[in-house]
Design brief:
- By secondary structure, the protein is an alpha+beta fold.
- The protein has helices at 3-9, 13-16, 29-41, 87-133, 137-161, 174-189, 210-228, 289-298, and strands at residues 45-51, 61-70, 78-85, 170-172, 193-198, 206-208, 232-246, 249-261, 303-309, 312-320, 326-328.
- Helix 6 runs parallel beside helix 7 and helix 7 packs antiparallel against helix 8 (289-298).
- The longest helix has 47 residues, at 87-133.
- The radius of gyration is 26 Å and the shape is elongated.
- The model is unreliable at 323-331 (pLDDT under 50).
Amino acid sequence: MNPAAENLLGISAKRASGKPLLPFLDDDETLKHVLASALENGQTYAHELLLAPSEVHANERMIECRVTPLSRTGDPDYLLVEMIDVTRRMRITREHALQIQHGAGRQMVRQLAHEIKNPLGGLRGAAQLLERQLGNDDLREYTNVIVSEADRLAALVDTLLGPGGPPNKQPHNIHELLEYVVRVVEPQSGESLQIVRDYDPGLPSIALDRDQFLQAVLNLVNNACASLDHQGTLTLRTRASSNFTIGDTRHATIASIEIEDDGPGIPAELWDSIFYPLVTGRAEGTGLGLPLAQELISRHGGLVEFESRPGRTVFFIRLPLIDGAHAHGNR
């Protein structure tokens, strides 16, 4: 083991000496077959695996393994296993995909708004004109239904479009805003929901639009509470990260606001479309909360992303701390 392998696996070469490799890599079954195939066939194989958080590494990591058979006698008698941490590369790729998804979703919303609101206005006006010609109150009930449903659909489209205009940014203490969100959701959840705060006290004030930020966080927190059925643990966490890239822009420092729940997780089939409008995994869901949160945070130059598995789902709000203090590049 070289020093890079010691760091990646979280164990010294001295402690690892003489012990099996696979337990250090979460006993990955596919890697076990890759190792056996490399020895048997004398060919090089590659494999990617996901390492769970450990005492040394707090977050999941995606590892690319390359297994090469080596020989001193003609037949393969030992293997060279090269491991590369590709978590950052995959995160950047994922962020680009999220931004593309958000752009496509925003275009879809605009088209929906155009296709729905114009005929709705005509439908509502025609129903009101018809109501004036009707002398029967029972018949007017039907026109009232038409007007009411037209108004409901118009409100739905307005929700899809979200608050208009650029954000009115003012310096705010992010923790005071999160506490406001807690005060809003606590009465709805009762004692069955445990809310845990894990705040970074050194986080400075952030220039943002209070109403837009609160709406985005409320959408994410309400989604987490619904996933938990208001029973379980909701964790609100804040951290600062340095040299962090959002899209094509590298920021010296960003704030990361995390909303974590210990619910069942997001179904894997929704991962690639979760930020599209009208996509939801719940029968009672509208599919509007996440795309609206993404839209509101993107107006601040930020991004919403997520990680999910059964027992742990985290939505991350990434926000630049200082406007204009950035350069182009990679993490």
